Backbone:
């Protein structure tokens, strides 16, 4: 009897082993997230499509549409991404990544208005502490001459972002437009410390010193010509020394600009400076580029 029981147990064990473990069904949604985790966005896109096709729309969460849309964008299908984002919004769902992705799509499409709307939605609904969003907003506001908004965004940037040349460039342009000369003077020096070949900063310093000297020259010559006395002549000589000093300050920046971009744009400044210095050869050399 005992032998029969042992035989029966052995047979059952063999039978159960042959059946194997029960299979676990993987849903298309799970497949999609698994593919996303490995960076296989094309396969993930296919899985999300299958999930939506086999699931009643009432049962699909807005977050699923948003996640699928982000995946579609990464897979290079912007049209599908926008369609699924629309579904997410229809279900009253929104998150930062969703609108950042929308902004990226509109940037690719060169649709500045829609890109700006997406970015502003983020700051209005999720706060203004996103440095990536703020950096792009600063660039857009600078481009469209929304200078007050650009200044407001600048104030929200953290120290690291404010030290990036890209953001300093835009802040420089805004302050030039607003004629904040003292701020521009400081920014020009910061930009040249970062990039000695920074064209706009070189131009700012070159023109600042050149026009300081040129305007002083014209002003003092007019005063002297209006009343040519010995006293005024002595005053003129002192003022002309200051003119020379300003031109000497402008010259290194103009020489650098000439090396970077020789031609008519800077030739007039250089010709005039060397004329004031009495250097006829260099004056004629640069005048040849003014024709």
Residues:
């Amino acid at each position: 009897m005992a032998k029969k029981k042992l035989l029966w147990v052995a047979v059952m064990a063999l039978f159960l082993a042959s059946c194997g473990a029960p299979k676990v069904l993987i849903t298309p949604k799970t497949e999609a997230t698994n593919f996303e985790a490995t960076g296989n966005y094309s396969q993930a896109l296919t899985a999300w499509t299958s999930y939506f096709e086999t699931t009643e729309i009432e049962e699909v969460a807005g977050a699923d549409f948003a996640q699928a849309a982000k995946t579609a964008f990464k897979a290079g299908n912007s049209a599908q991404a926008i369609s699924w984002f629309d579904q997410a919004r229809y279900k009253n769902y929104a998150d930062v990544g969703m609108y950042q992705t929308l902004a990226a799509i509109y940037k690719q499409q060169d649709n500045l208005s829609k890109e700006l709307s997406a970015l502003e939605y983020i700051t209005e609904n999720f706060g203004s502490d996103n440095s990536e969003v703020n950096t792009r907003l600063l660039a857009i506001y600078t481009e469209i001459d929304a200078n007050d908004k650009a200044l407001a965004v600048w104030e929200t940037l953290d120290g690291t972002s404010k030290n990036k040349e890209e953001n300093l460039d835009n802040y420089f342009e805004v302050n030039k437009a607003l004629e904040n000369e003292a701020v521009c003077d400081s920014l020009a020096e910061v930009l040249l410390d970062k990039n000695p070949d920074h064209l706009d900063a070189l131009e700012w310093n070159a023109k600042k010193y050149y026009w300081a000297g040129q305007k002083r020259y014209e002003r003092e010559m007019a005063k002297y010509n209006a009343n040519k006395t010995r006293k005024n002549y002595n005053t003129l000589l002192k003022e002309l020394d200051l003119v020379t000093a300003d031109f000497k300050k402008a010259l290194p920046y103009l020489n650098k600009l000439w090396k970077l971009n020789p031609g008519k744009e800077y030739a007039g400044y250089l010709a005039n400076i060397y004329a004031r210095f009495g250097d006829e050869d260099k004056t004629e050399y640069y005048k040849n580029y003014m024709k």
Remarks:
- The chain has three domains: 26-106, 128-191, 201-290.
- The chain has a mean pLDDT of 92.
- The radius of gyration is 35 Å.
